[in-house]
Amino acid sequence: MKLSLGPVLYYWTREALLEFYAGIADSGVDIVYLGEVVCSRRHNLRQDDWLGLARDLSASGKQVVLSSQALIESESDLKALRRIAANGDFTVEANEMGAVRLLSGRVPFVAGPHLNVYNNETLAWFAELGATRFVLPLELSCDTLRELQAARPAGMQTEVFAYGRMPLAFSARCFTARHHNLPKDDCQFRCLDDADGLALRTRDKDEFLTLNGIQTQSALVYDLSESLEELRGLEVDVVRLSPQSKNMLPIIESFRERCAGRPGAPLDGLRVAPPCNGYWYGAPGMEYRT
Amino acid sequence: MPSTVLTLCKPKTLRARARFKPLMPIPELVCPAGNLPSLKTAVDNGADWVYMGLKDETNARNFAGLNFDAKSASEGLRYAHAAGAKMLLAINTFPQGNAAPRWQRAIDEAASLGIDAVILADAGLMRYAAQRHPQLRLHLSVQTSATNYEAINFYHEHFGISRAVLPRVLSLAQVADVIKNTPVPIEVFGFGSLCVMVEGRCALSSYVTGESPNTRGVCSPAKAVRWEKHGDTLDARLNGILIDRFAAGENAGYPTLCKGRFDVEDETYYAIEEPSSLNAMALLPELAKIGVAAIKIEGRQRSPAYVAAVTRIWREAIDSYAKNPERFSIQPDWASGLARVAEGQQHTLGAYHRKWK
Question: Which CATH fold topology does A2-164+222-269 show?
């Protein structure tokens, strides 16, 4: 199984992003997904910067994939999307159907986690459209994955989101701006304050969700590090780790070891929050089973 | 383009609004039918289309006591057709793994009953319907999350969709831009409970309860709700998660998980969305001018009384606009009638209005 690093879902400073990816260049991940998936207003790295980073990481031996924005609303969003789709050098991860239209029949692409590939028939259609890898939607279980794998078209790789706070929802509204009583159009980029998102707690102080601009994430960290043998048994090709601001390199190292069948370092103390894995077992996503 | 022809062709004796002939395309009115009484009420009050679901997980209002079996669907269809209205079957959840055949049977049933169109969300099902039942009209469900014309045109090229329902995320100008760039007639939400998240892209409910709109056709399902009284306060929990806490005298609404009060940096507020309804009636002239083909009313889970009130008021508003577009104004009794049935008794223009974002 290969290890991939998903796109950075938070808004970090330019320096923080460049430093993070400098570390990734020497890390044990095989595939790196790059680009801004959440919010078109975030611009600390521009498209050319992402492409430069893609070339650097590629030169370091990483397979680079450019991830497209998950919610496309405006002509300027479409313009940026067309540039990514036509980049000519790197594979693109399509995160909504507009991107699929621009890629299908032209180049092979990755069907991202937000495309709702829930069943065998839809997976077969994506294979015909030119997808060579798909990312299992987060809320699906190992039982559903087993059925998809049994019917998987030839040449289709399977990737599973296996570590990180889960992107659970997208909205037109920016919840970070709302929290700061700012209009979305003049958000003052307050999401820069929250390197791992803004904690939303219940009124009895349970850590419940994480606000990340227009995206809502789980507070808990999805963690399939104890299920990697099962993933291998299901012939999963790629295991995705979603970036957090700290400890990412030791987390990658631990997964690397575990993928090689060795006991990796414990992840307690490395995660930004306690783990969950309910979705994998067909249970509420927030649950954790050992 | 919106269908003026359909409006003009309705038998005059059957439908009050056919007494005049609109000179410009007027949006059709699409109303919810959770059961047969609601369907009849919607038709009686002037719906152009009614939409319904089957009694199972193939639709996004899979609630106990709601929806249709083959017999009631058949009766509903006769009733709608006799009055010149059309019927839509929503098959708008996503079959998982090997499960598609159950959803395919629902499509077969729609075709054999002669239902006017099916509302589909899953691409595999669209392909099945387009191949097996080429005469069956397909509408792209809001659950497909198609928010831009590239996405809508892609479904059109592949499956020949006849209409697309837009997610409740676009501003009015963005809706107009979509309409300008697609041959597919566009339907938008006009009234009802408001999803603040992009439809078809929200797993919050399964994160807490194991069941979501995509997988089981439910959000914040009633079986996971628990009410706890502690002295004067009332706690509303969803699978143990405290969604809201109501003081004595506060109106305790249903704990839809994105509409509760939560703490963010020690401030307690509706961090995601207030319990409010969408009401876009003030935008009706603009929606018509930009060429919206149909306006959809949410609420298959609501009572026949809700369906009656909302359908009647929107019918009157659309007819009034069609008669005299320049002088359209919201009548006080429409506003008060809609306010009475709105969730949380307050309403919003939602994403149509940029400030909401």
Answer: TIM Barrel (3.20.20)
